Amino acid sequence: MQYLLTLYAEESGFQRMTREQQQQGMAAYMAYTEALKQAGAYVGSNRLQPIATATTVRTADGKTQVLDGPYADSKEQLGGYYLIDAPDLDAALSWAARCPGSQHGVIEVRPIWTM
Amino acid sequence: MSGCGNGVQPRDLAEQVARRSYGKLVAYLAARTRDVTSAEDALSEAFASALADWPRNGCPQNPEAWLMTVARRKFLDATRSTQRETASDEIEQNAMAIPFDAEATEIPDRRLGLMFACAHPAIDAAIRAPLMLQAILGLDAARIASAFLISPATMSQRLVRAKNKIRQAGIPLAIPERSQLRHRLDTILDAIYAAFTEGWIDAAGTDVARRDLAEEAIYLGRVITDLLPNEPEGLGLLALMLHAEARRPARRNAAGDYVPLAQQDAALWNPDMIAEAESLLHRASAMSAVGRYQLEAAIQSAHAVRVRTGQSDWAAIVQLYDALFALSGSPVAVVNRALAIAEVHGAHQALEDLNTVAADPRLAEYQPYWAARAELLARINSRRDAHHAYSIAIGLERDPSVRCFLEQRKMLIDE
Does domain B332-415 have CATH number 1.25.40? Predict the structure, then answer.
């Protein structure tokens, strides 16, 4: 099965880190991605630009509304995702637990809807 | 109508098989697809066929295998037609995964894997016990609902949602790896105990759904101890439930009034259940891994010595509650310990101990806290405070006979 791991964290946390801490953080993500690939579980992943770059679009009554900012205004923001292949939820959860994002934020694990 | 030999009627036989094999058949059918709903549907169709077929053609040699053969065919038909989204080779794989030889006498027991799925941390904690009662024992939603004081429609909805989650999120019907096993087993034991305590509330046994629930929980406890005989907490939970169940005949007097533990006639306690509980606890303690359920069972065991000595071993009970509090940090352990302290060191010291948790918000609506407090205050003759505490305890109690008992106690201090 495929699972999407969405990573939520306090965006300002990264900016508050020293340059050295930031580099360590990046290295942890690279190692994690490498481990996923090695295990054949990696399907895809991306890191997103900060929420200041986000724009929301909604069409209602034929009118398209465009708003500045992210959809959900919460303490933790969507910052990236991993799409992985895992035999079951337990395997997906153990990948989520290994992700560096689980230490400085929250990871939502959801199965992909297969058509 | 032809019988089934030994005078067993087909309907009785189907019921016996249902009781013994329901969870086994569901677990086996759903093991690979994780589709518990379809497995249950197929099985109920198979039972319906059995009730039509067995009276006509006689009961099969191996009823369980007969049901499995029919249920498996219906299950595959149903998954073929509903799972269009599934690639056809996967359906074939699923079909291969449920090979079944009707001549075989033993169906592999995969109930444990199903129980681990029902009590998975990804499943809402409140629905784990109902889910297990349904998937393993085949209890219907209406019966579970009435025992858990929830409307049948809401209960069905929650059960459906939980089963959908097992299938869609890919929760495995499997025994977790060794490193996870104990931690995950705790969630199963908690769910079984939740079912037991729901059943335990109805002490008089007048509410059939409730009384049965305690028995079903004990049955689930036996499944766990049979399949995982070397897990001490499983043994501890079964011992705890048996000790509690053993006292059922003494919890009400002939008039149906509530009798508190201290005033129960120990001669009415069921000696066989106590003996079995003691032997389970003995086995568990040899495994040297203490846990919550073993401690709670040991506390009940220290009460059970009354049968021989005429008195509970209060000093041991205080120590066991100390250990339980150290382990769980739960104020409930302090409440119960206070009542034991009162027996050893008197009500004044017990109240001092109880006051250490008085501000805990978890106790504000916890009936046993107020009842314990009232009892201790009454003993030191602090009438006004006792009166107040009894009022709150009565207001929080849902069992009318316990309410009646507390009202009588309250009247005593008013005199």
Answer: yes
Indicate the number of domains in chain A: 1
Identify which of B9, B35, B4, B40 has the alpha carbon closest to the alpha carbon of residue B22.
B40
Phi/psi of residue B5, each to 5°?
75, 160
CB contact under 8 A, B122 and A89: yes
pLDDT of residue B104: 56
**Which are the contacts of B1, defined by CB distance < 8 A and separation ≥ 6?**
B9, B10, B55
Give the SS3 label for residue A95.
helix
Task: Check pLDDT > 50 for residue B204.
Answer: yes
Query: Do B169 and A111 lie within an 8 Å CB cutoff?
Result: yes
| A108 in B contact zone (CB under 8 Å) | no
Domain segments of chain B: what residues?
10-99, 332-415
pTM score: 0.82
Would you call B172 and A111 a contact, using CB atoms and an 8 Å cutoff?
no
Which value does ipTM take for this structure? 0.78
**Residue B136 to chain A, least CA–CA distance (Å):** 21
For residue A111, give how far its alpha carbon lies from the nearest alpha carbon of chain B (Å): 5
Instruction: List the single residue in A86, A111, A115 with the smallest CB-CB distance to B168.
Output: A111
In angstroms, the separation between the Cα of residue B149 and the nearest Cα of chain A is: 31
Distance from C-alpha of A93 to C-alpha of B134, rounded to nearest angstrom: 26
DSSP string covering B309-362, please? Answer: HSS--HHHHHHHHHHHHHHH--HHHHHHHHHHHHHHH-HHHHHHHHHTTTT-GG
Within 8 A of A115 by CB-CB distance, chain B residues are 85
